[in-house]
């Protein structure tokens, strides 16, 4: 029995390191492929929209610690496992990256303009959140991605707070309603030829946005140009 245990221990000693090495190599190959895919989407968004600033797109797992010198964070867009778990397709991954590009592009505003822009964003964060969302939709469309992926991605990844009165961010329901309105008015093709109509996340959005979409339709019917107060 002792001899058997000794032989078994030797077998484990030899096999486990080999298995661990093989697993590590497989994971590395997967990480390299994922990094390339993320970079390809990010660069496609930059090039298609003629965004003539340098940004890099970096895949990191959730446990990675990032140390950057001041000013570089906004010029490196990180995609974490936590982000990827909500992205079911390239549209949704492009939605996240396009939104980050939209926000990060402001870091290239230099001199007095940069100071003013930074002050404006901090002074009216909800207004600029809507602006960054809408610009990200345009980035997606120009690069050939379906902007409804922005709705499904946010619907899955962003929780709903009770209130946004004292928050620097809009309620997720308001963000989704504003994005839907923007697509409805500026990019109606994607709603008329809705590839997401059977998507569960999109169906959930329709279910939870009935009142907000009713307000939008009433605004359009009346010809009003006032902003809709979504809930």
Characterise this structure.
The chain is mainly α and 231 residues long. The chain has one domain (2-222). Helix content is 64%, strand content 4%. The chain has helices spanning 2-48, 81-84, 90-104, 111-123, 125-142, 148-157, 172-186, 189-192, 200-208, 210-222; strands at residues 56-60, 76-80. The protein has a two-stranded parallel ribbon. The longest helix has 47 residues, at 2-48. It is globular. The chain starts with a helix and ends in a 9-residue tail after the last helix.
Index terms:
mainly alpha, globular, 10 helices, two-stranded parallel ribbon, 231 residues
The topology string of helices and strands comes to: HEEHHHHHHHHH
Number of separate helices: 10
What would you call the shape? globular
Tell me the β content.
Answer: under 5%
**Span from first to last CA?**
72 Å
The domain count comes to: 1
Classify the helix fraction into a percent range: 55-70%
Secondary-structure-derived class: mainly alpha
Q: Order of strands in the sheet with the most strands? A: 1-2
Number of strands: 2
Low-confidence stretches: none
Q: What is the residue-averaged pLDDT?
A: 86
Q: Output the radius of gyration.
A: 23 Å
Largest sheet: 2 strands, parallel
